[in-house]
Amino acid sequence: MEVQSFSSIFELFATFTLAYVLVDEFTPDPFVSVIADKILRMYDSVYKEFKDIRTNINAARNDLATLVQSKKDIEEIAKDDFEKLVRASEKLLESTEYRANQSLKEIVSEIKNRLHTKRFAYLNFFLLLFCLFMLFISGFYNNTLGKTPYEESRYIASLDLGLFLFLFGSITYLVTVWARDNRRKNGDTENIKKGYLTSLIVWFCLVALAVIEYFAGLFTEFFYNCYLRHDILVYICVFLPLSNFLVYMFKAYRRAKKDLPDLEHRAKQYFEDYKSEITKVNKFCAAYGFNKDDLLMV
Q: What is the pLDDT of residue 30?
C-alpha cells in the first residue's frame, strides 16, 4: 500500500477541510452547533415547547376571530365594551407571540454560544496543511528509479521515518488541543488568530523535522531495523483528516446532552407562562358564550 495511491483522497480531504474552515469562520451557525441541532436533533424537545406555544396562540386567535364573526349583531349598548375587550385580547396575543419569539431566539442564541468553538476551525486549517504535505511527500515515494532493492528499501525507510515523525507530531498537537477545548465564554474569541498562527508554526516545525531526518538520517538505521509497517503508517495518515470531524461530533453530542435538562426546564417554564396569557383570551371567548362545538353552525 503506497502513499501515492491515496493522492486523490488527500485532495478531496483538503477541499473539504478548507470548505469547513470557511463555513465555520464566516457563517452564524458553527459546525458543532449544526451537528447537535440539525443532524443529531438533540434540541427537538425544546423547540416542541415553542411550537406548542405558537399552536395555542393561533388557536386562540382563530377562536377570537370566530367569536367576533358570531357577535356581529350584538346589542349596541354592549358593543363598545365588547370591541374593547376584543382589541385587548388581540394585543395580548400579539404581545405573547412577540415575547415567545424573543424567548426562542434567546434559547437558540444560548445553544450556539454553549456549543461554539473556534478550535474546530483552526484544527481543520492544520489538517488542510497536513493533506498538502501528504500530497507533497507522495511524489517522493515514486522516486525509486535506478535504485537497487537494498537502496530502495533504505530510501523508503528514510521517507517512512520522516512521515512517522510528522504524523506523530500532528497527532500529539491534535490531541492536545482537543483535550484543552472547553466551553468558551460569550464574547471570548478564543484567540482565533493565535490558533491559526500556532497551527501554521507547528506544521512548519513538523515539516522541518521530517526534512532534517530525511537528509541527516539520524534514526534511519534504527527505524529500518524496527521496520514499522508501511501500510499501517499510510492508513493512519489517510484517516487522520477525518478525526477532527468525528471528535467534534462526539463533543457536540456530549455537550448537548449535558445542557438539555436545563434548556427543557426553561422551555417548559416559558410554555406555562405564555399559556396562562393565552388562557385569558380563552376565558374571554367562553364568557361571551363561544363554544367550539358551535363552529360548524356559524
A: 67
Q: How far apart are CA 131 and CA 137, in angstroms?
A: 10
Q: What distance in Å separates the CA atoms of residue 235 and residue 116, rounded to the nearest whole number?
A: 31
CA distance 270 to 203: 49
What pLDDT score does 130 carry?
94
> Cell for 216?
541527516
Q: Among 252, 215, 244, which residue's Cα sits nearest to residue 29?
A: 252
Q: Indicate the residue type of 74.
A: I
Q: State which amino acid sits at residue 117.
A: T
Residue 286, C-beta contacts closer than 8 angstroms, at least 6 positions apart: none
Query: In one letter, which amino acid is 254?
Result: R
Q: Of 16, 76, 11, 26, which is closest to residue 243 (Cα–Cα)?
A: 16
How many other C-beta atoms are found inside a 10 Å radius of the C-beta of residue 286? Answer: 13
Single-letter residue type at 46: V
> Rounded distance, CA 111 to CA 41, Å?
12
Phi, psi (degrees; rounded to nearest 5) at 139: -65, -30
* pLDDT < 70 stretches in the chain: 1-2, 4, 24-30, 71-80, 144-147, 150, 182-190, 217-229, 288-298
Amino acid at 197: L
3-state secondary structure the chain: CCHHHHHHHHHHHHHHHHHHHHHHHHCCCCHHHHHHHHHCCCCHHHHHHHHHHHHHHHHHHHHHHHHHHHCCCCCHHHHHHHHHHHHHHHHHHHHHHHHHHHHHHHHHHHHHHHHCCCHHHHHHHHHHHHHHHHHHHHCHHHCCCCCCHHHHHHHHHHHHHHHHHHHHHHHHHHHHHHHHCCCCCCCCCCCHHHHHHHHHHHHHHHHHHHHHHHHHCCCHHHHHHHCCCHHHHHHHHHHHHHHHHHHHHHHHHHHHHHHHHHHHHHHHHHHHHHHHHHHHHHHHHHHCCCCHHHHHHC
